[in-house]
Amino acid sequence: MRRIDRLEGLREALAALALTIARTHGHLAWFLAQCSSELAPILHWRALDAPDIHAFGTHLPTGDELADAENAVRLLAAMLARTGDGPAGTS
């Protein structure tokens, strides 16, 4: 998968997380806010090469950085799916 597509998916996940936080309260909201803080470096990544003078403080992510962020998003999605699977009244 191309870097631009990978970065697009990560930014979409971060946007969805921000929208969810806006509609969530309590402990879950605090947890999701911390998750979004941990994923915030995604906002400083760019998908295309650019001269430093035109990069506005962004940088190209390494393959490992992209993989780590994608794994974190997958783990978060899995955890949230498990959270919703509990019996009624236990969440």
Strand content: under 5%
Order of helices and strands: HHH
Category by helix and strand content: mainly alpha
Distance between the termini: 37 Å
The shape, in one word, is elongated
| DSSP, total strands | 0
Low-confidence regions: none
**Main beta sheet: strand number and arrangement?**
none
**Into which percent range does the helicity of residues fall?**
55-70%
What is the average per-residue confidence, as pLDDT, rounded to a whole number?
91
Number of helices: 3
The value of Rg in angstroms is: 16 Å
Topology diagram in text:
Layout: H1 3-22, H2 26-39, H3 63-83
Helix pairs in contact: 1-2, 1-3
Main attributes of the structure:
about 90 residues; mainly alpha; elongated
Textual characterization of the structure:
The structure is a single chain. This protein has 91 residues and is an all-alpha fold. The longest helix is centred in the C-terminal third of the chain and has 21 residues, at 63-83. It contains three helices and no strands.
Quick rundown:
With 91 residues, the protein is mainly alpha-helical.
